[in-house]
TrEMBL record:
Domain called Trichome birefringence-like N-terminal: residue spans: 69-120
Limits of the Trichome birefringence-like C-terminal domain: 121-390
Keywords associated with the record: Membrane, Signal-anchor, Transmembrane, Transmembrane helix
Cited InterPro entries: TBL (IPR029962), TBL_C (IPR026057), TBL_N (IPR025846)
Protein name according to UniProt: Trichome birefringence-like N-terminal domain-containing protein
GO cellular component terms, A-Z: membrane
Keyword check for Membrane: yes
Lineage start: Eukaryota, Viridiplantae, Streptophyta, Embryophyta, Tracheophyta
Any one Pfam family match given in the protein's UniProt record, by short name: PMR5N
Subcellular location: Membrane
Organism (species): Ilex paraguariensis
Recorded topology in the membrane: Single-pass membrane protein
Family note: Belongs to the PC-esterase family. TBL subfamily.
Length: 392
């Protein structure tokens, strides 16, 4: 059967007939060819990612522009009593993020919903998500803040899965939540640099800027990949994450961290370009999660509500480097920019409530470490996952 475009091309050659019967015939032929034409495998694969709610959110945050777009990055936090979407009794939460269980006295930080300017972010529907992700693997790759997001996503879906039909398995640096009836897995793979960090002579930590396969072997065969790598690159002085850097046979100690970060990202980008098929795998790179660590880590302590706006929004150097690398890739990686929206939420970190406190300890909270990097759950990472769900 000739293609639709072939039919149209052949019709264009003779002088057009202006009769109503001719135009009626033309419309019938075009519609019939669309209905009965044979789609290519690429088209079938692309259509498999669509669903009935496509019109609800038409937005792609990437270097590929969308004709109908909604910028999820610009908006405000609005108080919504119908949130959160789960509570801290979710069995998959680590104790460091269960701020309510650890004694945090307020809970309003759980009830703020992100409202983009000029559009809406759909409320997370667990059954709808699992239905669309049936027989698929979703993997989040990165550091402990990515695990923060993984725990959020698992808690968002787990309540609709019967107790005997869900399980968690472990494989090296990876863990996976399985919704058995949907044949869906939501996985986390530990790789804070994406590239390889190895122990060398004398126990020295060597970050290999051009090696990645030891981590990347866990990413093969995954349908949806969400990457993040930012925080570990900026640890300095006694908190530095490596002793030496290597690229090929070159050993470096005092390389600018952002130069090292770019080299590591280029290694990751080359692996994605060479090893993944955009018809089979969707790839997202989540931007840097902001920290509120100024004033010796106490900037987030006792905060009760979001900032209304940021008069001078700070663009992290990591985001600038990441954008440059993504622009040069062949593979269509979608940049999920959560930095600006999250920077307004200094109220949503664990602060001193990363561990449970007794009555005596509560009287001396200033003696404890304040975590202004990770996020209480339920909380801000739930919004990241609502955005991810919309993009999928």
């Amino acid at each position: 059967m000739p293609t639709t475009f072939g039919l149209l091309a052949s019709m264009a050659k003779p002088k057009l007939n202006s009769s109503p019967l001719f135009f009626a015939s033309l419309i019938f032929i075009v519609i019939s060819s669309f209905i009965h034409g044979v789609s290519s495998q690429f088209e079938l694969d692309e259509l498999s990612w669509l669903d009935e709610k496509e019109d609800e959110v038409a937005m792609v945050q990437s270097r590929h522009a969308s004709q109908r777009s909604c910028d999820f990055t610009s908006g405000k936090w609005v108080y919504d009593k119908s949130y959160p979407l789960y509570d801290s009794s979710c069995p998959y939460l680590s104790s460091a993020v269960t701020c309510q269980k650890n004694g945090r006295p307020d809970s309003d930080y759980e009830k703020w919903r992100w409202k983009p300017d000029g559009c809406s972010l759909p409320r997370f529907d667990a059954l709808d998500f699992l239905g669309r992700m049936r027989r698929k693997r979703i993997m989040l790759v990165g550091d402990s803040i990515v695990r923060n997001q993984w725990e959020s996503l698992v808690c968002l879906v787990q309540s609709v899965v019967p107790t005997g039909r869900k399980t968690v398995t472990y494989d090296g640096p990876s863990m996976a939540f399985h919704a058995l009836d949907f044949e869906t897995s939501i996985e986390f793979s530990w790789a804070p640099f994406l590239v390889e960090l190895k122990k060398g002579a004398g126990g020295k930590r060597i970050l290999h800027l051009d090696l990645i396969e030891e981590n990347a072997k866990y990413w093969r065969g995954v349908d949806v990949l969400v990457f993040d790598s930012a925080h570990w690159w900026t640890h300095s002085d006694k908190w530095s994450s490596w002793d030496f850097l290597m690229e090929g046979n070159s050993v470096m100690r005092n390389l600018n961290p952002m130069v090292a970060y770019e080299k590591g990202l280029i290694t990751w980008a080359k692996w994605v370009d060479l090893n993944l098929d955009p018809r089979k795998t969707r790839v997202f790179f989540r931007s840097m999660s902001p920290r509120h660590n100024r004033e010796n880590g106490w900037k987030c302590f006792n905060q009760r509500e979001p900032l209304g706006f940021s008069s001078h929004p700070h663009v992290p150097a990591q985001l600038v480097v990441l954008q440059g690398v993504l622009r040069r890739m062949r593979f269509p990686v979608f940049l999920q920019d959560i930095t600006k929206m999250s920077s307004l939420r200094r109220d949503a970190h664990p602060s001193v409530y990363a561990k449970a406190k007794g009555q005596e300890e509560k009287q001396h909270l200033r003696d404890y470490t304040s975590d202004c990097s990770h996020w209480c759950l339920p909380g801000v990472p739930d919004t990241w996952n609502e955005m991810l769900n919309a993009l999928l």
